[in-house]
Design a protein that fits this description.
This protein has 387 residues and is mostly helical. The chain has one domain: Hypothetical protein af1432. It is 60% helix and 0% strand. It contains 19 helices and no strands. Helix 3 packs antiparallel against helix 4, helix 10 packs antiparallel against helix 13 and helix 16 packs across helix 19. The radius of gyration is 22 Å and the shape is globular. The protein starts with 32 loop residues before the first helix and ends in a 10-residue tail after the last helix.
């Protein structure tokens, strides 16, 4: 079934039937509930901090490398385009995409791993759980409650991973809430599924771009990756002048553009086929039918091969590993210092009854450059040189 452009499909989430917010609010006169979520996310402090948080390359390594903020914007753009074609709710998928990395630490996944190690005896640390914690508790913008008070549907999409133990803890304080699906083994809304897949599409593409820009990847290496190589070959066929050495940047951009388009159209076609076969009558029915937003089998295999290539050649490149290892050292030493000397924490964190979690919250909210400045400022942490 091809939805009418601009119309919601029966299986789309509808703000008029939202499961609501933790704290009831009066409806906005000109915005639906999911628009309101998106606006609250864009105006929150955690969203602004993403501009100085690492994607792959540390924030100070170059002005044009992606950050968590630019990544989130690219995910939102891709997700909205696909949502429109599928008849899903664009405002909801955009809200989820913009919020999905709000809980990320400084120094990217390396920072998360270091903070998880520090918190291992205190319940661990995971950035998806932290993103939910940010929107539920750590933002302090409203007089009536902590957090942003987002709708169930947006919060459900933010919590895209959750261990059984964490799901049970969340379920205990919010029965039948956003963690229940991990206990019952159901899927989230189609919009949440789409935001998750758009995340994968976006980072595969922009990590190629940033990897080549950094000099750690070359177009010659990428010729061994079928998903990229076929679109590079098509670009050269249609525009032979792109083979000239001075046109390398244009060739890269055109190859990535074609690769992105192919993935988007593949998701639309494969998802339409899956939805047609499952025939969900409404958004809730779709949650009980397994993952419906998907790549076709061939594109899934090609995307997986690209991820393996990026993991081996970029994320595990010695230069990236060395730099992120220094970031991990900063996180570990900050954690130890704050835990032993809470007077160095801001008052709203220092007074917490759960000091390890408060320290983790404070560090997770730092930007790369603030973490480095704090590391230099504190008396028991030697300066870290991250170049």
């Amino acid at each position: 079934m091809t939805p009418i452009p601009g119309a919601l499909a029966p299986y789309a989430s509808d703000p008029a039937t939202s499961r609501g917010r933790l704290h009831p609010v009066t409806p906005a006169p000109t915005r639906n509930a999911f628009q309101r979520d998106r606006d609250r996310i864009v105006h929150c402090s955690a969203f602004r901090r993403l501009v100085y948080k690492t994607q792959v390359f540390l924030n100070h390594e170059g002005d044009l490398f992606r950050t968590r903020l630019t990544h989130s914007l690219e995910v939102a753009q891709l997700a909205r385009d696909i949502a429109r074609a599928l008849g899903l709710h664009e405002d909801l998928v955009e809200a989820i995409a913009l919020a999905h990395d709000l809980g990320h630490t400084p120094f990217g996944h390396a920072g998360q791993d270091a903070l998880n190690d520090c918190m291992r005896a205190h319940g661990g640390f995971e950035h998806n759980l932290q993103s939910l914690r940010v929107v539920d508790a750590l933002e302090h913008r409203y007089p009536e409650h902590d957090g942003l008070n987002l709708t169930f549907e947006t919060r459900e999409g933010i919590l895209k991973h959750c261990s059984p133990a964490n799901a049970r803890r969340i379920e205990a304080r919010e029965p039948g809430g956003v963690a229940r699906r991990f206990i019952d083994h159901h899927e989230p809304s189609l919009e949440a599924q789409l935001a998750n897949l758009a995340d994968e599409i976006a980072y595969n593409a922009h990590d190629i771009d940033d990897g080549v820009r950094s000099g750690l990847l070359t177009l010659a290496q990428l010729a061994d990756v079928p998903l990229f190589a076929q679109h590079q070959a098509a670009a050269l066929h249609d525009h032979p002048h792109l083979a000239e050495p001075a046109q390398g940047r244009r060739l890269l951009y055109e190859s990535i553009r074609r690769m992105l388009s192919a993935q988007v159209y593949d998701v639309i076609a494969a998802t339409r086929a899956a939805i047609d076969a499952a025939a969900p009558q409404d958004a809730d029915a779709a949650r009980h039918m397994g993952p419906l937003v998907r790549f076709g089998a061939d594109m899934r295999a090609q995307s997986t091969a690209l991820k393996r290539f990026l993991f081996a050649r970029l994320y595990r490149h010695p230069q990236v590993v060395e730099t992120t290892a220094r970031g991990q050292k900063v996180v570990r030493e900050l954690f130890a210092t704050y835990l032993d000397a809470p007077a160095h924490l801001p008052p709203e964190f220092a007074g917490s009854a759960d000091r390890p979690r408060a320290v983790a919250d404070y560090i997770a909210g730092m930007t790369d450059r603030f973490a480095l400045r704090e590391h230099e400022r504190l008396p028991s942490t030697p300066p870290a040189s991250i170049k």
